[in-house]
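REVIEWER CHECKLIST
Item 1: Sequence provided? yes
Item 2: Single chain? yes
Item 3: Sequence as submitted:
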Amino acid sequence: MSHPRDAHPRDTDMDSVYARIEQEVAARAERLWDVSLALHHEPEAAYEEHRAARLLADELEHEGFLVERGAAGLPTAFVARTDAAAAPEGAPRVALLMEW
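Item 4: Structure as written out by the authors:
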């Protein structure tokens, strides 16, 4: 299977995006691992993931995201956004739907 970077070898902009992602993840690797372990050590039943939702939302707020808790009327759901107005014109946008 080819790496996503191989799909468009002339696209140096995407190379810089992938490099930035790798840097950001590497800079946070220890904290990401700690969060992962905390989630693993305290499993919660579906729709009852109150500790997990709080932990993840708190982590995103700590990283500067604007977090809306209780999204879609679900107390364990949240939406996290960055300040899109501060992003350069044409900057990549990422959306993630995650269930844990």
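Item 5: Key structural point noted by reviewer: The beta strands are 66-69, 78-81.
Item 6: Recommendation: ____
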